[in-house]
């Protein structure tokens, strides 16, 4: 009986350490993804979404410290999803701004062409 109890205890402990390693890895991935998003334009174009990811990652670390590995895993995965969303939204917003800038440049060029065309027409008529 003692051998069975010890065997089950060892299995349980090894399973817990596996959960800890999994949680630690997911939190580490979240930290790396968050740092990458901050280096990109997510902090400028998606600050609210990036803050949500930071908050969830902080909660995941707190859960990990309390040895609540299930919550740590879940929160770290949510943080990763939030980081991906923030990074994607940041890139989308950047492209939208660039597109608007190009539209404004085209509008300005058309106006300049119109003015030059009118001047050429006036000079040609003289």
Concise account of the structure shown:
The protein has helices spanning 2-39, 42-45, 47-65, 69-125. With 126 residues, it is mainly α.
Report Rg: 28 Å
What is the number of independent domains? 1
Main sheet: strands, sense, barrel: none
| Helicity range | over 70%
Distance between the termini: 113 Å
Roughly what fraction of the amino acids lie in strands? under 5%
Task: Walk me through what this model shows.
- This protein has helices at 2-39, 42-45, 47-65, 69-125.
- It is mainly alpha-helical.
- Mean pLDDT is 85; it is low at 11-15.
- The chain has four helices and no strands.
- Helix 1 (2-39) packs antiparallel against helix 3.
- 94% of the residues lie in helices and 0% in strands.
Quick tags:
single chain; mainly alpha; 94% helix
Task: Give the topology, please.
Blueprint: H1 2-39, H2 42-45, H3 47-65, H4 69-125
């Amino acid at each position: 009986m003692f051998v069975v109890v010890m065997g089950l205890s060892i299995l349980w402990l090894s399973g817990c350490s596996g959960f800890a390693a999994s949680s630690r890895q997911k939190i580490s991935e979240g930290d790396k993804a968050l740092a990458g998003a901050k280096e990109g334009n997510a902090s400028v174009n998606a600050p609210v979404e990036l803050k949500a990811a930071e908050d969830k990652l902080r909660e995941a670390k707190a859960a990990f410290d309390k040895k609540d590995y299930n919550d740590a895993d879940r929160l770290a995965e949510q943080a990763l999803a939030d980081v991906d969303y923030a990074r994607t939204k940041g890139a989308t917003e950047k492209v939208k701004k660039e597109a608007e800038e190009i539209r404004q440049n085209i509008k300005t060029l058309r106006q300049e062409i119109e003015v030059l065309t009118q001047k050429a027409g006036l000079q040609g008529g003289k």
